[in-house]
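Data availability (excerpt). The following record was deposited with the supplementary files.
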Amino acid sequence: MKTVLIIENDPDTLDVLETVVQELSVKTISKTSTIPLTELASINPDLILLDHWLDGHYGADFCKTLKADEHFAGIPVIIISFVATLKSVAQESGADDCISKPFDVEELQKTVAKYLN
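Predicted structure:
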């Protein structure tokens, strides 16, 4: 079974993301902030859904860290955010894709499925 790590600081949005992604018959692990790389290694996700606006820091910075590390660079990262410049934020951070909030459920599922297959 594939594993999707969801990092989202808003509890309501996190609940919705979990529900929508679990409909794809995948395991979800949810966090409200970025995690140490040692914890990420133990989770070994197949995909990361990453909020850009996290408490005190940016998801894009975490994405840059992941993409610069040979152990994690291959994990697809989808940044999710309200930010108007989302496409450029995603490109600059090395993210594989981005989804704007508020997101369309079908678009989210389609994008997640694309990176899990």
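Summary of structural features: The helical segments are 11-22, 37-43, 59-68, 86-93, 105-116.
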